[in-house]
Amino acid sequence: MKSMLQIVLSLLMAAVLMACSRDEAVELPTDDLLASAEQAETAAMAWREDRLERLTEPYGWLSLVGLEFPAAGEHVVGSDPDADLVMPAGPAEWGRLTIGQAQARFEPSSDEVALLVDGQSGDDWQLYPRDADSAYLTAEEVRIELVARGDRLAVRTRWPQSPARVDFQGLEYFDFDPAWVVEARFEYHPEGTTLPVGSVLGDVIDEPNLGAAVFRVDGREYRLEAVADRDSDELFFIFADRTTGHETYGAGRFLYAAMPDDERRTVLDFNRSYNPPCTFTEYSTCPLPPPANRLDLRVEAGELDYAGEIGFSDY
């Protein structure tokens, strides 16, 4: 018969090297890879390396240098300080971006500007928020992408030479503690249940709420509401605790976990809780912990508050 530790570590397998954001899928190992807390720590260290690599890649979160919500209509884009949407590099006038209700159209003024779709040149000059990760305008390493936030369209700009990336101070963590690898019972909600989640912009979005992970620490029961639906690949939690605003970031932390197994069990490895992008840049639109996910305990595990300055650009 398996011990409790073996059960927890077996469940943990589905979350080893879990991605740092929803688009960061990685290969999952087999159930028998982890047999001890030492191996769990080794896997957590590998996760940290992956987290750092993804955060610091040329067009990762640290590269953000702009987030604007232009009104519907035509806007001049370029590096000219008098442009409507000012870029940190590239031609003085990139072109004109016309914001519509659910998409934008770009008319280039310079042959230095390209539209790339999945890394290939595009020629229809249409941008859609659903394609933000794969379609963007680019010139001299600057990227412009269209994103949706609530019912608004925003123009987000990335640049590898952003102050946040150039002056990045690294990540710090609590020491790994196997006690914070916690087995949880998953309680499903009725299908269609949603969870109101606010953001740093003041928006509130009703996110799909598959259920809650219920766990115990020092004999006391706690629960975290999950952002996920039945088709999700993983459970997503936005939480705060008694370290929030002290040792850890003031707007909470993120945590991913494997979907529940057939016995409705999952594992919360708080050693892998991490800071949202807003920790590093003012140009992200992070969700905030819902009231139900404000834990009355100190989660002394995972990523500590960032020691560097929040990145901003004054070009």
Structural summary, described in words:
- This protein is mainly beta.
- It has 2 domains: 4-58 and 169-293, no CATH class; 64-159, Tumour Suppressor Smad4 (Sandwich).
- The chain has helices at residues 4-12, 37-56, 163-166; strands spanning 64-68, 73-78, 85-86, 95-99, 104-108, 114-117, 120-122, 126-127, 135-139, 142-149, 152-158, 181-188, 194-198, 204-208, 211-217, 220-225, 234-239, 253-258, 265-269.
- The chain has a 6-stranded antiparallel β-sheet, with no helix packed on it. Strands 3-2-4-5-8 form a 5-stranded mixed β-sheet, with no helix packed on it. It has a 4-stranded antiparallel β-sheet with strand order 16-15-12-19.
Write the layout of secondary structure elements.
Layout lengths: L3 H9 L24 H20 L7 E5 L4 E6 L6 E2 L8 E5 L4 E5 L5 E4 L2 E3 L3 E2 L7 E5 L2 E8 L2 E7 L4 H4 L14 E8 L5 E5 L5 E5 L2 E7 L2 E6 L8 E6 L13 E6 L6 E5 L46
Parallel strand pairs: 2-3
Antiparallel strand pairs: 1-11, 2-4, 4-5, 5-8, 6-7, 6-9, 9-10, 10-11, 12-15, 12-19, 13-14, 15-16, 17-18
Distance from N terminus to C terminus (CA atoms, Å) equals: 63 Å
Tell me the overall shape.
elongated
Largest sheet: 6 strands, antiparallel
Number of domains: 2
Structural Rg: 21 Å
Q: What percentage of amino acids are in beta strands?
A: 25-35%
**Average pLDDT reading:** 88
Q: Going across the biggest sheet, name each strand in turn.
A: 1-11-10-9-6-7
- Enumerate how many helices there are, as a single number: 3
Can you give the helix content as a percent range? 10-25%
Return residue spans where pLDDT drops below 50 for at least 5 consecutive residues.
Answer: 1-5, 7-35
SS-based structural class? mainly beta
Task: Return the string of H and E elements.
Answer: HHEEEEEEEEEEEHEEEEEEEE
Compute the number of strand runs: 19
